[in-house]
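Researcher: Please predict.
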Amino acid sequence: QVQLVESGGGLVQTGGSLRLSCAASGLTFSSATMGWFRQAPGKEREFVAAIRWIGDSTYYADSVKGRFTISKDNAKSTIYLQMNSLKPEDTAVYSCAARLSDTFFSRSAYSETFYRNWGQGTQVTVSS
């Protein structure tokens, strides 16, 4: 079975940085799409970033472009989310998601319903 485990969350001040990790097992990485979503208290879960295992295509929410970078380490079966210039509005539980699919459309990466596997999440808190 697929297992996703996030780590790296914490408390930082505005303008600080954090690097989240998501270790994956049970995936066929050649056909995988993996992404990060976040959910703040009282708000709906929203897309943050995603990456395709083949070709390394990346996708970002407009709210994080230029500040966040998604990447992967094939040897470690892990994806990362480097978060810079953090703002209080970035405070949320960040969850890793994955989907195995032979067919992929770019717009699918942004959709919560596209993903089939989810981690438990890691808390990111940005103080003002």
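Model: The chain has a mean pLDDT of 94.
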